[in-house]
Amino acid sequence: MERARSEISGNLGTRQRFMGKTNAVRLLDRLGIPYELRTYEVDPDDLAAESVALKVGLPAEQVFKTLVARGEKQGICLAVVPGNAALDLKCLARETADKKVDLVSLKEVEPLTGYVRGAVTALACKKPYPVIADETIELFDVISISAGMRGLQVFLAPADYLRVTGARVAAIAKDKGD
């Protein structure tokens, strides 16, 4: 883990090239969390996490996407799953103590989170929603998540991400074919 931290904090060149900061990046700076920013060219017709993974040079299972869900009892939560997986709504419902959980409609994503589709992150979200991250997040020294805008990813240690977001870890992902 220390190796990953030093590699992340040692790469300030990406920070300096990026003009401006997102709320997510400002939060990481304020908390002193080491990270690396990675930009990529956005294809509005292909916002898939697998495509982002190719563009930032990581395997899809190391690039995590944040999905917005709503339970009938508990309300809104954020589910963080690997780019090569799908969200298992039944497992998420168990974790949130809901009988049923569904993804929110695309038109609700920005009003709820402050982020557009393809840029949603639990970092500096509009409101402090509960965050549940798939257990595979802990398998890596470094993960990639959206930095709060399309075309910008943040690489950081999973432990830092979990601590900053207050995320719980659970088995909430499944193969895309299931």
Summarize the structure in words:
With 178 residues, the protein is α+β, with helices and mostly antiparallel strands. The protein has one domain (2-175): YbaK protein (Alpha-Beta Complex). It has seven helices and ten strands. The strands form three sheets. A five-stranded mixed beta sheet has the order 5-2-3-6-9. Strands 1-8-7 form a three-stranded antiparallel beta sheet. The chain has a two-stranded antiparallel sheet with strand order 4-10. The model is unreliable at 1-18 (pLDDT under 50).
Summarize model confidence as the mean pLDDT. 90
Count of spatially separate domains? 1
Proportion of residues in extended strands:
25-35%
Taking pLDDT < 50 over at least 5 consecutive residues as the criterion, the unreliable ranges are 1-18
Instruction: Report the CATH topology name.
Output: YbaK protein
The CATH superfamily appears as YbaK/aminoacyl-tRNA synthetase-associated domain
Major sheet description:
5 strands, mixed
The beta-strand count equals: 10
CATH architecture: Alpha-Beta Complex
Order of helices and strands: HHHEHEEEHEHEEEHEE
Outline the fold blueprint.
Layout: H1 2-9, H2 13-17, H3 23-31, E1 36-39, H4 49-56, E2 64-71, E3 75-82, E4 85-87, H5 89-96, E5 101-103, H6 106-113, E6 131-134, E7 143-149, E8 152-156, H7 158-165, E9 168-170, E10 173-175
Parallel strand pairs: 3-6, 6-9
Antiparallel strand pairs: 1-8, 2-3, 2-5, 4-10, 7-8
How would you describe this structure in keywords?
about 25% strand, YbaK protein, 10 strands, single chain
Give a concise summary:
With 178 residues, this protein is α+β, with helices and mostly antiparallel strands. The protein contains seven helices and ten strands.
